[in-house]
Write a structure and sequence with these properties.
single chain, mainly alpha, 4 helices
Length: about 90
Amino acid sequence: MSLINTVKHRLCRFEMTSQYPVGELVEWAEQVGYSPADMLKAVAKAWLQLEAELAALQRLENASAAVLIQHEYWCVYAEQVCSFYRALVDD
């Protein structure tokens, strides 16, 4: 599984929380040895994929509201993780 797919899998969890659990993903990345720059690239690409999936779902007339909400959550979560890694890489 590619890093992008692995990151996307880790981003797309079925529980929704008010605070995005960035720490779990960061700890995993550190444990397996991915640099913040590599993670930023992977998360950004996963985010683009999620945004494209959300746009496709929004075009469907019979898309479930629950599925749309879940995808929107994943997109916001990916954006938050990107912001975290961008701050690390830009320092």
